[in-house]
């Protein structure tokens, strides 16, 4: 049984149907990547899972139980953590304070949460020296690392990552995806990514969304191995190494 199963999901924003019957499965311990252009429905899928967008129809199962009618706080308590696009950190709080906020749904002492936040700097050494710096002083790559660290502080069974490479320099993208490779040792990940090559490089399975519909699904080498698929959906004809 998959840890997460999305069945025929339909999500509307007013008269606009953003998802048209999407079906996705994520097994425990996997990294699964959702690929597609802007407006394809990738972020809407994550928002529906985390309770920020209410499905019009279909179902979302987590550990075999429907969560489609639950609110964001109840879903977070089940062990689903959502790191949204945009690296939304609190500019007036320090890096460590921002990271500690990720544990707000857990029953743990402040001293325990503080120790766990300090331990996050082992996974994110590039921001260790910025522990006491205010959020507004950080670069885009540093903000992304803070946002992911904050998501992990919830100790999720499932981490939803929305466009972690967006707007970052290539060398920083490499660093962020190295961290994703580390995260997968303990956490299942559903990753939304426009950078198909990077998204598939860490994935066990990939889905391609086009205008709200799942049009393809397969293992990374299967998706990259088909030139027609690569040209139409994954950004070009160059021979893949992912």
Protein described:
The structure is a single chain. The strands form two sheets. This protein has a six-stranded mixed beta sheet with strand order 6-7-8-3-9-10, sandwiched between helices. Strands 2-1-4-5 form a four-stranded antiparallel beta sheet, with helices on one face. With 242 residues, it is of the alpha/beta class. The longest helix has 14 residues. 33% of the residues lie in helices and 25% in strands. The protein is built from nine helices and ten strands. The chain is globular, with a radius of gyration of 18 Å. The chain has a single domain, classed as Rossmann fold (3-Layer(aba) Sandwich).
- What is the arithmetic mean of pLDDT? 89
Provide the helix percentage: 25-40%
Structural class: alpha/beta
Could you give the distance between the termini?
28 Å
H/E series, N to C?
Answer: EEEHEEHEHHHEHEHEEHH
Give the radius of gyration: 18 Å
Shape: globular
Reading off the top of the CATH hierarchy, the class is best stated as Alpha Beta
Number of domains: 1
